[in-house]
Amino acid sequence: MKKAIWKDVVGFEDRYQISDEGSIRTPSKKAKKAISDSHGNSVVILDDIVYRVDELVSAAFNTTMVSDSSDQLQVDQLKQRIAELESALASQSATSHRSKYTIYSEDDTQYASFAKAASAYGFNYDKFYNAFYYSKESEVVFEGIKFRKEIST
């Protein structure tokens, strides 16, 4: 049988303790009785204020208290989904840098970036870049000159 772990109730340090199983006591080991509210939640009255036991456990142990195996299954599924999302986010941020493009003018002059092509022609960089961005095409005509972009390797 697992022995309960006791911690101070957040906000009531040195006055009340709560176990990882949801039991409440005073430091002198006098038990504090929890009751059920109208929604079936286990609650306790501390200093004339009603608190949900699961919230007190969560605050004290930085965890979530579950009441039955179906709740535990949902918690396990959520934890698995969170792990999957964190993994996907990590791999996405590792590859989320902008693609590098080589820009070619209509006479096949090659430029290493949008900025270099815009500068060579005296164009405003933002307007030049946005011409490609908003058209979603690899070729655009900008101020009468045809340009194409290719992903650099």
Structural commentary:
By secondary structure, the protein is of the alpha+beta class. Helix content is 36%, strand content 25%. The protein contains four helices and eleven strands. The strands form three sheets. Strands 1-2-3-4 form a four-stranded antiparallel β-sheet, with helices on one face. Strands 9-8-11-10 form a four-stranded antiparallel β-sheet. The protein has a three-stranded antiparallel β-sheet with strand order 5-6-7. A hairpin with an 8-residue loop joins strand 1 (6-8) and strand 2 (17-19). The longest helix is centred in the middle third of the chain and has 27 residues, at 69-95.
Q: What are the main properties of this structure?
A:
alpha+beta; about 150 residues; four-stranded antiparallel sheet
Summarize the structure.
With 153 residues, this protein is an alpha+beta fold. The protein has helices at 53-61, 69-95, 114-121, 125-135, and strands at residues 6-8, 17-19, 24-25, 31-32, 35-36, 42-46, 49-52, 101-105, 110-111, 139-142, 145-151. The protein is built from four helices and eleven strands.
What is the topology?
Elements: E1 6-8, E2 17-19, E3 24-25, E4 31-32, E5 35-36, E6 42-46, E7 49-52, H1 53-61, H2 69-95, E8 101-105, E9 110-111, H3 114-121, H4 125-135, E10 139-142, E11 145-151
Antiparallel strand pairs: 1-2, 2-3, 3-4, 5-6, 6-7, 8-9, 8-11, 10-11
